[in-house]
Specification:
Length: about 280
């Protein structure tokens, strides 16, 4: 049986400790704060990033450095037969298409998913891939099945609009008006892209609508369920119970890390589902 390395980038919301425990290799995306570049958990701690975000400092991210990406592949291929890499969704970053092109030079030893995944669902898919490899599936077969059958849907409820404004996802004028009218947006993550799907008047109603949205039109037994929070565990604890009651299924509880939090802001709650892969 081939020895296959599992790989993602830090948009998968996985810490160094978690990556080591799960034997997943992570290329870290640069974090830019006030024009200065950092690498999460290497040159800056997560608490410092959260502090900057809560103070309204502009925090941005960049694609993984190409040299770092290929260097990791080269190092992994000294120990492994192949690399299976799930990057940040192609709808949110150019990393995916760049990686697919770069992988062509590795003559089949590096497989890059044309990804629609982001945050912790990326890790879930990698763990599914590992199980499939153990059952004899090849990287090419897993890629085909994931791209055909993989499905992520999530609703993000930001606590404030500051990070969305700083990241250019909404205009300063729209953010000011929304704050004045106490309008709360609901963001839909579907096919790897983020879109505005609804606006309500209170956070409480937004959470309720978010749960209803991810449940709409599906059999909960066909999905894995999760709730993800950005430095907002007390609220996440309460909402996890509600999501479990609504789905009748177990709900995993995870945290947004710096890459995603820099775009949605601290306090954000995400309700998500991933379709179970049949194999």
């Amino acid at each position: 049986m081939k020895k296959i390395a599992l790989m993602c980038d830090s948009s998968a919301d996985i810490s160094k400790k978690q990556a080591e425990e799960l034997d997943i290799h992570v290329v870290r995306m640069p974090i830019i704060i006030d024009g200065k570049e950092y690498i999460e958990e290497e040159t800056i701690e997560e608490s410092e990033i959260i502090k900057a975000l809560r103070e309204g400092v502009v925090v941005k991210t960049a694609q993984p450095i190409i040299g770092d990406l290929t260097k990791m592949w080269d190092e992994l291929l000294k120990e492994y037969d192949e690399v299976f890499y799930i990057p940040l969704t192609y709808s949110l970053s150019g990393t995916c298409q760049v990686a697919i092109q770069l992988a062509e030079a590795y003559e089949g030893r590096v497989t890059v998913l044309n990804s629609e995944f982001v945050c912790y669902p990326t890790v879930k898919m990698l763990l599914t891939a590992r199980d499939m490899f153990g059952k004899g599936y090849t990287c090419a077969q897993v890629k085909e099945i994931f791209e055909r059958d993989g499905e992520l849907l999530a609703i993000l409820v930001p606590e404030t609009l500051t990070a969305l404004k700083n990241g250019g996802r909404i205009s300063p004028a729209a953010a000011a008006l929304a704050g004045l009218l106490k309008i709360q947006p609901l963001l839909n993550v579907k096919h790897g892209a983020i879109d505005l799907v609804d606006k309500v008047r209170t956070l409480k109603k937004a959470y309720k609508e978010g749960i209803s949205y991810v449940l709409d039109g599906v059999d909960p037994k066909d999905y894995d369920w999760m709730i993800i929070d950005a430095d907002n565990r007390a609220v996440s604890d309460e909402l996890k119970v509600l999501l479990e009651e609504a789905t009748g299924q177990p709900v995993e509880q995870r945290e947004f890390k710096a890459v995603i939090m820099s775009h949605t802001g601290p306090g954000t709650i995400g309700f998500g589902r991933i379709k179970k892969i049949k194999y």
